[in-house]
Design goal:
By secondary structure, the protein is of the alpha/beta class. It has two domains: about 210 residues, 3-Layer(aba) Sandwich (Rossmann fold); about 60 residues, Alpha-Beta Plaits. It has eleven helices and eleven strands. The strands form two sheets. A nine-stranded mixed sheet has the order 3-6-7-2-8-1-9-10-11, with helices on both faces. β4 and β5 form a beta hairpin. The longest helix has 18 residues. The N and C termini lie close together (about 10 Å).
Length: about 290
Amino acid sequence: MKEIVVISGKGGTGKTSITASLAYLGGSDVLVADCDVDAADMHLLLQPDFAKEEDFYSGLIAKIDEELCINCGKCADVCRFDAIPFKNNQYVVEPIDCEGCSYCAKVCPVSCIDMNDAYAGKWFSSTTRLDTPMIHARLGIGSDNSGKLVSKVKNEAKDLATSTNKKYVLIDGSPGIGCPVVSSLSGANFVVLVTEPSISGIHDLKRVYDLVKSFKIKAGCIINKFDINESGTDEILQFLVAENIEHISSIPYNENFTEAMTNAQTIVEFDNGELKEILTQSWGKIKAIIA
């Protein structure tokens, strides 16, 4: 089983649309994992059934036992996050503000503060409308444990892929270079970088590849909307050669790209012309590289 991660240095490059198309082309060989848990949207294209749902807990959150509390205020004094206001003649913990450091519990003279597991979101095991298994998640409001939730999604995806004999785990990673991307890259066999020839696209491609290099993972690149800036595309191609990154394909600007999203379809379902041909060839090239 091979693990393929699709990432981009910035949002808006077409990463998720391309990943969904690769999932369509992969058919029964593929298990899909949406690791963009902060802004998950793969479900809009693949329409999973949310058959299995589980809460995910990560980190700690303080809770004051109001019956035991003597309102001394020591907890509020030491809280650097201003998470313990005095309301209605009682100190209370604001869950959104609490960082789970436990300092308040340590200084409480009557031990009335408990540190409980913090709710961080939900993860799901589904079957998509393409009859493809999919593991995905939704980060809870105000939660900052997206990296750990990504790890949970990846582990569940690998276990299910192994038990169902899938050839590929296809992962839609988050944009940027933060903790969710680091978690997405851990254990991957191949990385597909999706970029565009804009100033920010080129800058963030180079930045995210620095992260990929630290993992020593082989990478390939798909240049989306390559024809909107020829000099930018030339700069990207030179960068790919210099860094020994496989040039998988270049996709021209085409309004069918967004029309497919509007119609809740993958690109290769909506477009039977040039886009479908390029993406079909791209999937074939990716499989050949990691074979």
